[in-house]
Amino acid sequence: MPTPPIRPHAGALAPHRPATLDERATALWASLPRELVVRFRPVVGRLTQDMIREIQRAVPAYAQPMEGHFGAIMTAGVEQSVLRILDTVGIGGPSDENWAAVFRRLGRVEYGEGRSLDCLQTAYRVGGRVAWRHLAAWGQQQRLPTAMLTVAAEAIFAYVDEISTLSIEGYTAAQAQSAGVVDRGRRRLVELVLSEPPASMAAITKLASTARWRVPDTVAVVVVEQAGEGEPDELTGPHGDHLTDVLLDLDGDPPCLVLSDPGRQLRALRPQLRGRRVCVGPLVPLREAPTSLNWARRAMTLVRRGIIGADGAQVTWCHDHLSTLWLLADEFLVRELLRRTLAPLAELTAKQRARTAETLLAWLETRGSAPEIARRLAIHPQTVRYRMRQVDKLFGDQLTDPDARLDLEIALRADRLLRTAVVAPRPRAEVARVVHR
User: Fold this and answer.
1) Single residue among 179, 205, 232 that ends a domain in this structure
2) Position 170 pLDDT exceeds 50
3) Which whole number is the average pLDDT over 46-65?
4) Which range is most confident: 27-31, 92-96, 368-372, 420-424?
5) Distance CA 19, CA 369 (A)
6) Does residue 393 sit in the same domain as residue 373?
7) Are 81 and 29 in contact (CB under 8 A)?
8) Is residue 319 a contact partner of residue 351, using CB atoms and an 8 Å limit?
């Protein structure tokens, strides 16, 4: 007996265009006669097999054995996509959240496997073409009206768009969740690396795996200048895969970075620093990162006082100022040394004191003759001789005692550094260049 023709619903010839993707696909399927489902079911098994075969052929990443977890996920995805269509033909209705969850889960799986969405999107398009090929052949056999087949074709490709959207939602949700876990892990990792006493290497290594940070042998801690008045308080985090080895504490006081290759990484971070001055601590073994932080902080204090970094450079390297950092590491002791060692200068006026100290330091540094010291200070040799007579009266036997001479030179160098300090932190220079080593 010949198969009787199926009469389309009136809406099948001119389906309405709902606002949402989900409503559009559902409405298109709902406009088709329900009796199509009964006649089409015998084709479903072959359709499912063909879809899987064609998808594996088109997407190399999916060309895997169908046994096990991968096969179960792929088969479930294909079967659910076909069953969803059959369930809505001639009926419509709201989407089943369990069904939608299947395709969101597929998106999450793709992210977890480290793939982009390209593979899944290609699979959906291939599946849609296979479904249409089967439906078109079957429809001709069933003598379906052309208008009905047109609606079915439109419904298939609207449906492909719908499940693609669901998978994108799942993928981006997994991506956001992963980013949150990584960010939290990195913040905690900064705390561990900079903690005193040092955290165990086992704890650091374990958290580094979660935070996607490759544990280096050595690090330098970089202190970033606080924002000036009217400037944004926050720094922008680094972007790009080439900066995944940077740890940041942007909420610290002051903000700081943990870098394994400070020269390269600071050049890459230049846009995020927005011209703020930074001080780079010594490169040390990872367990000594707190020491690098302490010296970087100390260097920033001296930079803001104008004692070092007065050349306007954005980056100050501790290794360029080791003697200054050592000399001023404990300013209380330094000032005690100044008070005791330079006591003979106390009765002089400020101008006399400065000139006498300058001449004495030049003599201690060079042990040169009056003409040599005069050239160094750009003054007349006779002036040097006069000042040195004053020095001899003030310090006497100390000038012939090696230990006393060492104390004098240290004290005078420290005094010269401290006299260069500004009363208040100077405004941050607007500089474009980054000094690197």
Assistant:
1) 179
2) yes
3) 88
4) 368-372
5) 94
6) yes
7) no
8) no
